[in-house]
């Protein structure tokens, strides 16, 4: 699903107009991450409840994260797949830097550059990024489909029962953040990239081409981020962009998708980090999941609740 990671070293020349070290400036320009509506295409213009970027995918090979969906033959696993998108609607860009001293260390430590202003100067480097993220790390994914560096634990999703118990959690391994699309409300945001050669425009161009140090397992420094007014999306066909519902009994559930789940990234507002959908899941004949699966369950989207970790009728409205 969406195993991606963190590459893109901004050059010192670019960084000189992007970041600031002046201590007497106004409060820093913080990002504000939001979880876009679950199961919707990025920058969707339709009602979230009408989104169709999700499906039920039975597979014959449960060990293959990108196995093809099957409709007959042995079904070893049933995956509820959905598109996930994260947007930055804050005052400043999200900029994260990873570093390791040598290739003998398999992972990189992560720091966040908190930007005082677009007109000051600060080297775009791990050492200059002020905010340490002690629980965050990056690692190189050697799988054939990826082969680049990944930021771990940036986004999480889980299936929650009516009593609030989490039944299933994701198996995502990492993320590669960049400006993959323009959000619907970018025009309302003061520091969204514009095609004018401004610092935010330079940053946006760099982040739009972030390849997460592709094919570079020996990298010592990598960076990633999301500009103001931009988003990073993962299509439901990407490997691990799903929840395993093979043993989940028939019932009504809430699928919760949360960005920055551990609140390690400094941002302007943490209250909009989750979005959710309510679904009904029904196996043939109703009741528990069968021991031998010959047909997948029927899943209906009941309602969508952008900006909420719960999805009651009140949340949806």
UniProtKB/TrEMBL annotation:
Which GO molecular function annotations are given, in alphabetical order?
A: copper ion binding; oxidoreductase activity, acting on the CH-NH2 group of donors, oxygen as acceptor
Name any one Pfam family assigned in the record.
Answer: Lysyl_oxidase
Record-given protein name: Lysyl oxidase-like protein
One GO BP on record is: carbohydrate metabolic process
Alphabetical list of InterPro entries matching this protein: Ig-like_fold, Lysyl_oxidase
Q: Organism source for this protein?
A: Pseudonocardia dioxanivorans (strain ATCC 55486 / DSM 44775 / JCM 13855 / CB1190)
PROSITE patterns, alphabetized:
PROKAR_LIPOPROTEIN
Highest taxon of the lineage: Bacteria
């Amino acid at each position: 699903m969406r195993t991606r990671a963190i590459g893109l070293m901004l050059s010192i020349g670019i960084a000189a107009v992007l970041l600031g070290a002046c201590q007497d400036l106004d409060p820093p320009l913080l990002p504000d991450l939001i979880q876009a509506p679950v199961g919707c295409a990025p920058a969707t213009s339709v009602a979230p409840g009408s989104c169709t970027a999700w499906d039920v995918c039975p597979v014959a090979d449960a060990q293959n994260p990108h196995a093809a969906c099957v409709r007959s033959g042995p079904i070893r696993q049933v995956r509820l797949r959905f598109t996930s998108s994260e947007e930055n609607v804050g005052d400043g860009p999200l900029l994260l830097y990873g570093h390791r001293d040598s290739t003998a260390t398999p992972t990189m430590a992560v720091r966040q550059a908190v930007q005082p202003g677009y007109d000051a100067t600060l080297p775009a480097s791990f050492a200059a990024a002020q905010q340490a993220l002690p629980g965050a790390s990056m690692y190189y994914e050697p799988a054939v489909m990826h082969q680049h560096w990944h930021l771990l634990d940036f986004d999480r999703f889980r299936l929650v029962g009516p009593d609030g118990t989490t039944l299933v959690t994701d198996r995502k391994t990492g993320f590669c953040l960049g400006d993959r699309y323009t959000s619907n409300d970018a025009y309302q945001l003061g520091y969204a990239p514009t095609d004018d050669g401004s610092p935010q425009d330079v940053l946006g161009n760099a982040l739009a081409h972030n390849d997460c140090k592709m094919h570079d397992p020996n990298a010592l420094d990598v960076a990633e981020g999301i500009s103001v007014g931009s988003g990073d999306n993962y299509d439901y066909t990407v490997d691990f962009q799903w929840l395993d519902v093979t043993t989940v009994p028939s019932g009504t559930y809430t699928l919760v998708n949360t960005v920055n789940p551990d609140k390690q990234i400094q941002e302007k507002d943490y209250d909009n980090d989750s979005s959710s959908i309510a679904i009904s899941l029904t196996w043939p004949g109703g009741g528990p999941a069968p021991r031998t699966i010959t047909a997948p369950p029927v899943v209906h989207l009941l309602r969508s609740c952008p900006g909420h970790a719960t999805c009651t009728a009140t949340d949806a409205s």
